[in-house]
Amino acid sequence: MAETSSTKNIGLRGVKVADTRISDVDGANGILIYRGFRIEQLAEHSTFVETAYLLLYDRLPNAEELELFKKGLGEARTVPGFVLDALQRLPKTSAPMDVLQASIPLLGMADPDLADDSREANLRKAVRLISRVPAVIAAWHRIRQGKDPVPEDRALPHTANFLLQLTGVRPDAETARDLDTALILHADHSFNASTFACREVVSTQAHLYAGVAAGVGALSGSLHGGANAQVMKMLEALKNESDVPGWVRKQLDDGRKIMGMGHAIYKTTDPRARFLKNMCFRLGNKLGQEHWCRLSTQIEETAVAEFARRGKTTIKPNVDFFSAPVYHMMGIPEDMMTPVFAVSRIAGWTSHIIEEKFGDAHGEKPALYRPSSEYTGTYCGKETCAYTPIEERK
Q: Which of 14, 206, 214, 311 is deepest in the core (most CB within 10 A)?
């Protein structure tokens, strides 16, 4: 009989499995840090591309380094032809996250560095994926509508080019900047489910693309990246509701969730949600769609008060709660909201994969992940069961 551990943790909550220099989450105080920088600083002053460089290289770039990084991203934007051909052959009803997950290994097969597992080669792979994931997502959205993919515009910055390829319309500078800020906010979040999936896979010495494919699969779940689409479904269902507070109370009375409320780590307001709420009202006022922000705020205020009345004072809005109406007002469909999350998180995933493969600055590298489990299945008395030939079984 296998030995059983004296302790067991469901979902690895609170279990520290490795060191990281990439990001830190202080859930009690609502603080998120990337490589020593608070998320508020980066959201206000940085760009997504500069933040991606910070995550990958553990420091902010100088002007020359940033220009070279931008150039590398621009040169990598073109999706290999056979990948686009494969997208054309997929059922048009395929879920975008499934399409993205299927595309990652194809992108890997086109990578000349696939078999090279050096740090330098993995950094080059990371640049290609940061650039090509948005291009694949945009191409699929066009293809499923019966339209041709939009060619990249090398003159446009990373995020503005993504919006152009996704919508077919050159975005205004303010909208592109808002999405760029949203990508910064989503770029990393320590050992969340998808990041841990990436790290667990590459701890076996699998290549970077295998790890990212696992991350995409984990992100697709409704309890992780898929939550923003669920928030938008909730808002759409409530847009004509005359008694929103009553609906919220009934949801909680019936033991149902309010999508976008609560977080596994934060015990106060998610710092990313504050930025997205402000962005929501700014966009809503600009586009004449402020009703989405008012509806979200009504749900938020009622839910927070009801949770507090029930003794659950730590349940507040998370990053998905206001990212959903923000993305909606930018013209991003519900089922594309989680892929847009991946456009951002690819920077964090690849940074964690490289750290998993090569360790931190001190050369310390995590070991192959191999948790134990507690067997709760069948034993025949104190011994294992005796095999009975099929003709003797009743």
A: 214
Quick check: pTM over 0.90?
yes
Task: Please state the φ and ψ torsions of residue 31, each to the nearest 5 degrees.
Answer: -120, 135
- Among 141, 189, 263, 352, which one carries the catalytic annotation? 263
- The answer to whether the beta carbons of residues 106 and 81 sit under 8 Å apart is no
Angle between helices 96-109 and 119-144 (to 10 degrees): 140
For residues 192 and 365, give the distance between their C-alpha atoms in angstroms, rounded to a whole number.
19
Query: C-alpha 3: how far from its chain's center?
Result: 37
Non-local CB neighbours of 27 within 8 Å, separated by 6+ positions: 263, 265, 266, 267, 268
Q: How is residue 25 annotated by DSSP?
A: E
By the 8 A CB rule, do 280 and 289 touch?
no
**List of the chain residues with pLDDT < 50:** 1-5
pLDDT digits (tens, 9 = 90+) for 112-160: 999 999 999 999 999 999 999 999 999 999 999 999 999 999 899 999 9
Q: How far is CA 233 from the centre of its chain?
A: 19
Q: What is the number of alpha carbons within 13 Å of residue 48 lying toward its C-beta?
A: 30
Sheet containing 37-38: order of strands = 23-26, 31-34, 37-38
Is 113 tagged catalytic? Answer: no
Q: Which two tokens stand for residue 108?
A: 């890997």
Nearest CA to 320 out of 252, 255, 230 is that of 230
Q: One of 270, 320, 328, 352 is an active-site residue; which one?
A: 320
